[in-house]
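Fig. S4 source data, part A: sequence.
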Amino acid sequence: MTAPTVPLDGSRISRRQLRLTPAGEDEIDVESLGRCPLAVNGVPVQKARVKPGDTLTLRNAMVLLVATRRNDSSRDVDADFPFGEADRHGMVGESDAAWELRRALAFAARSSEHVLLLGESGAGKELAARAIHAMSERGKRALTTRNAATFPESLVDAELFGTAKNYPNPGMPERPGLIGEAHGSTLFLDEIGELSHTMQAHLLRVLDRGGEYQRLGDSRRLTADLRLVAATNRDASALKHDFAARLPLRIKLPGLNERLDDLPLLIRHLLVRLCTSTGNLLDRFFERRAGKVAEPRIDPDLVELLLRHRYTTHTRELERLLWLALSTSQDDYVAATHELRAELGNTVTETEIEPDKAAIEAALETARGNVTRATRLLGLRNRYVLYRLMRKVGIPTRD
């Protein structure tokens, strides 16, 4: 089902540019009306029929990603945050996949069962664990966290269960261990698949309802009221079967390739964070309105390149690519630099869309006759290309 929305605009859009017409289920006819050249999936067009996953680029102005969205007004999770911004748990996303994840996390938070988070590296498993804890009845207590891959092999039992006073040597203080620290709260163990099957077996009793365990060097049996949220980038079948059975709630976290709708929102969110943390980058790359930070100045080609990239480490990889773009951009906008293209394996020169006479005149008018600035507005390689085009269409040049 289609529904009307408010007009799209931007600082470089001053008149009607596109006509969008529904063309059946999940397809739209698009027609260019303005002077800004249009490309669909990188190919210059005047008209086209587009489907979910396609990109529409208005040269040097904006990129539109075609996506479907369910008409779902009955979300049973907190939606009290501005569209496109991070929610109160730090999650960014408006795609169906993002909202399904929020629902799954909210359901897990209301339960008392142990949870297993499944997802590739960089998919946001720690963020999900913190959201579950914050929304649960245990959320008022501090979350206890540890990456299981960092346990020293000979000290895993001591790290998990703690040690009695004077153990293993006289004068040694009592240590509560992670189990003791998490009493009454939530224990998050990341990379649980790195824990050996032997050590997974040691956790079985404490994960049962009695929560029974022993500290090293202590004959007493202690009990802990804790909830385990474990995470792994492996398949659940890689875990010891009776350990995995004690983690009945399973949540699969989608990677960036499964939620490309959210990529432009994540790009903006990450750019704000990266530029805020580094010198004067915020002043250099972001627009300001009424004294407040507004949109980042981004080369549309950069957005399209990032939309077409296949991610393996997801948010971490996106952040690394944005750092590369920021550090190699020469102007006051975040560019699709040669270094970034080489990193993405995209060294092919983009197709240059030749503007018509009206587009050239409009760019020169906006630039107040400054050919260099008009060249940038038109997305051309250099001013000599613009001089050639001006002569071609009959616009006088100074030389």
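Fig. S4 source data, part B ends here. The chain is about 30% helix and 15% strand.
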